[in-house]
Every structure is written in structure tokens, then in C-alpha cells.
Amino acid sequence: LVIKACALALVKYPAYNASFQGDHLRVATHVDIGIAIAMPEGLAVPAVLECERKSLSEIAQDARSLASRVREGTLKQREYTGTFTISNLGMFDVDTFTAIIVSPQVGVLALGSMQATPVVHRGDVVARQVMSATLSTDHRAAGGAEAAQFAGEIKRLLEEPTQLA
Q: How far apart are CA 131 and CA 95, in angstroms?
């Protein structure tokens, strides 16, 4: 769900679907989202390619395949060229963190663990599962206001999962 939400938001905010080539910004044609995977020898960031064209089930299948193949060492070079990265430490019970941008990309989304949190819903305080997300941005590509809009779009899409179909 997060990969698809990011893909749709990246289409809407193309400054984040970009990389620095020397001193200029190159906006990518397709949305290739890197998934940070911890390996014994260090971090690997293989990418689900052309996410903007794929269904949720295709993205899930590709992500599982990438995780297996990165551990086997059988990825193709093209699969290491994401345009944006998602890093998730929630499975290690990390609430929130700030991820470092994978150069030459201009952004990374850091996901923390889901936690039952009191929220106000229709005037009542209820427990809801809440996940923290932190966006790191290279400000040469986009300023704080655009970063807030981009992050808000991801949040909106995750809160309305029917929009991800």
C-alpha cells in the first residue's frame, strides 16, 4: 500500500521522482521505488520498477521477489536504480526515525512501527493504529512547502486505500 501511495504521489509531485545528474535535476520517466533492505554486508536498495503502471498485487509480488533475489545476489543492475526510496524500521519496533537520502535521489520516506494511539474520530476518543512517516528531502529539488504537500498526498492516499486501486 505504501509503495503504491508513494507512486501515485510521485506522479503528482514529479520533483521527488528525480535525481541529480551533475548540477541539474533530471525528472524520471517512470516511478521506480527503492526498498531499503538490511543485509549482513550492508544496505541494499533494489527498486520495484514502473510502479505507476502496476496494480497493488503486482507491486506486492515484485517487492517479495526483490527481497528474495537481493538475498540470493541475483538482481539485475537496472533493479538498483530507484528514483525514490522507502525505508521501514517498524518491524524492529522503531517508532520514528530519519532516513538518509540515497544519492543521487532527492527524497526518502522513513516508516516507523504501527501503534495503537488515541485519536479523535467523530467527536469520540478511540484507539487507532497509527504509523509514523518522516520525509527527508534534498532542498535543491523541492522546498518545505512542496515537501509538506507531497507527504500530505501520501497520507491522504493511505487513509483512503480505495484510491490505490
A: 8
Cα separations in angstroms, 35 against 90, 144, 162:
14, 24, 23
Residue carrying C-alpha cell 526510496: 85
Q: What is the mean pLDDT of the chain?
A: 93
pLDDT in tens, 18-42: 988 888 899 999 999 999 998 888 8
* pTM, to two decimals: 0.91
Measured from the Cβ of residue 67, the count of other Cβ atoms closer than 10 Å reads 14
Whether residue 76 contacts residue 98, with contact meaning beta carbons closer than 8 Å, is answered with no
Burial (CB < 10 A; 0-12, 13-18, 19+), residue 145, is exposed
Active-site annotation, residues: 139
C-alpha cell belonging to residue 129: 493504529
Burial of 155 (0-12, 13-18, 19+ CB in 10 A): middle
| Start-end of H helices in 27-55 | none
Backbone torsions φ then ψ of 6, nearest 5 degrees: -65, -40
- Strands in 47-48's sheet, in edge-to-edge order, are 47-48, 33-35, 84-88, 107-121, 124-137
